[in-house]
Amino acid sequence: xxxxxxxxxxxxxxxxxxxxxxxxxxxxxxxxxxxxxxxxxxxxxxxxxxxxxxxxxxxxxxxxxxxxxxxxxxxxxxxxxxxxxxxxxxx
Length: 91
Description:
Blueprint: H1 2-13, E1 33-38, E2 41-43, E3 49-50, E4 58-59, E5 65-69, E6 72-74, E7 80-83, E8 87-90
Antiparallel strand pairs: 1-2, 1-8, 2-3, 4-5, 5-6, 6-7, 7-8
């Protein structure tokens, strides 16, 4: 009987609160990047300014070329940046 009483007493001391889990912050999926127009220049998502050539395309700082095709910008990866009121929306 003493053992049963002791077991019940010990069970009451055990916390039933959920233990905190480590928090992992994941980047927001699907957040679009913007290329903004500023006069005759474009401002890239990292703040770099580029000047489009006569075709509307431009050279990136790393030497890759972004071409303009049917109103959209086509990145070297093949991703298309659709025109918007402020510039272009990129995936």
